[in-house]
Design goal:
By secondary structure, the chain is an alpha+beta fold. The protein is built from eight helices and 26 strands. Strand 4 and strand 5 form a beta hairpin.
């Protein structure tokens, strides 16, 4: 029972930030047409302009003031000053489950921990977790060997990590939205700003003790109905030297040669539910904890102006599109060592173990800096007539590698949070 539940929780939290909406057929047909034709010209000969890292901010200020034929840019976008940009290798932690007691103490009292039947679980993929699942007290905690952490307190136990009550409002904290609105939670009134301040302080004072390589900031708050009151779904991004790790992208691909699925892009983020004022009622860090192992500083990079002109020349089918946010981000690409032959097909071809969604202990990840362009999606694009919006923060995105100019984009709808 526990193993099956843990497997479901693990897969669900990995997919948590990248679910696709069940959109109407006619809308999806339009989306597919748009996605397939949005790259309208061959820009293989396009020459990017490279600038010194110190020039990024000045160049961005100029670029954001210009007009572009294929899209508009939101007026409130700012590019922060950066100390450095790097190409890096990170690695998922190993044997982190040994820290389970100290980790659980971040969320539960020592007396609560002592009253649980905490046991090791070795799963079929040889990963190890220490966990407890207490249906009587409605409490759950889990610590994995790769740094994966998940926990539920009583108010969140029955709804678990996914929640599909109506979406009341989304606050983009990283875009400086007004956070003064007040909502009645389970035990009292709380403004969005007060919740953000509490979580940011807790991350700096407590969570940083076990994962000290990053700074942590609340990125998005989704307010949902909860019984007759409200709850906050809070999404946190991890920043390394001031640059956030990708919290959005999770994509699999097929290696035809080795006949296996693998994760082409991974994400790294933290998801929290606040049901009671100034309390963390559920927590998961989604895929585990990454540790930096190798860094190569970047001195020259593609300017924002050059990247925008590349988008203008490439996405020629854009019509009345507004870029809602622009920033620098590190994408995460796992590096695999195949784990051996699992079986053979009818023709004798070797089939390797399926490593889709793999973020196992010890797996190395390439981090690369990209220019990120976010396009918010209006609910009318994915809701049927009369359907209530139970989804979270919907968006499309474009990434341009700041060193190589490699383009990666997703014009389908990417959701933050789970819908019905």
């Amino acid at each position: 029972m526990i193993k099956k539940f843990l497997a479901c929780v693990f897969l669900m939290t990995i997919l948590f930030l990248s679910s696709c909406a069940n959109v109407p057929d006619e809308v999806r047909e339009e989306m597919n047409r748009y996605e397939n034709s949005s790259v309208g010209s061959d820009n293989s000969d396009y020459e990017f302009i490279y600038i010194d890292k110190s020039e990024i901010n000045d160049n961005a200020t100029i670029a954001l003031q210009k007009d572009y034929s294929q899209f508009k840019i939101d007026d409130n976008i700012n590019i922060d000053e950066l100390n450095k940009i790097s190409i890096m290798k990170f690695k998922y932690l190993e044997n982190f489950e040994e820290n389970y007691n100290n980790v659980l103490k971040l969320f539960f009292t020592q007396e609560q921990i002592m009253n649980q039947e905490i046991s090791p679980n070795i799963n079929s993929d040889a990963s190890t977790t220490y966990s407890f699942w207490n249906e009587t007290d409605k409490m759950y905690g889990c610590v994995g060997d790769n740094g994966f952490i998940a926990m539920l307190k009583p108010e969140a136990f029955d709804i678990s990590f996914g929640y599909s009550e109506p979406n009341i409002k989304i606050y983009h904290v990283d875009r400086n939205d007004d956070l003064s609105d007040i909502y009645y939670l389970n035990d009292g009134n709380c403004s969005v700003g007060e919740a953000v301040e509490y979580i940011n302080n807790w991350l700096s004072a407590e969570y940083k003790k076990i994962s000290s390589d990053y700074d942590y900031k609340v990125k998005t708050v989704i307010v949902r109905k909860h019984e007759e009151k409200y709850l906050f779904e809070i999404y946190i991004e991890l920043l390394y030297d001031g640059i956030p790790l990708d919290s959005l992208t999770l994509e699999s691909a097929t290696d035809e040669k080795n006949k296996t699925m693998y994760t082409a892009y991974n994400n790294s983020a933290i998801s929290i539910q606040m049901i009671n004022v100034n309390q963390i009622d559920s927590f998961t860090n989604l895929t585990g904890i990454l540790k930096p192992v190798e860094t190569d500083n970047v001195k020259k990079c593609i300017s924002l102006e050059s990247a925008l002109k590349y988008c203008e020349n490439t996405f020629t089918d854009f019509k009345n599109v507004t870029i809602s946010d622009i920033g620098i981000k590190y994408t995460l690409k796992p590096i695999y060592n195949y784990m051996g032959v699992e079986s053979e097909d009818d023709n004798g071809n070797k089939i390797y173990k399926n490593m889709e969604f793999d973020c196992s202990a010890g797996i190395t990840v390439d981090l690369r800096p990209v220019w990120e362009f976010i396009i918010d999606v209006d609910p009318s694009e994915f809701l049927r007539d009369g359907e209530t919006n139970t989804y979270g923060d919907t968006r499309k995105y474009i990434y341009i590698d700041m060193v190589t100019g490699e383009l990666h984009y997703n014009m389908d709808i990417v959701l933050q949070g789970l819908g019905a």
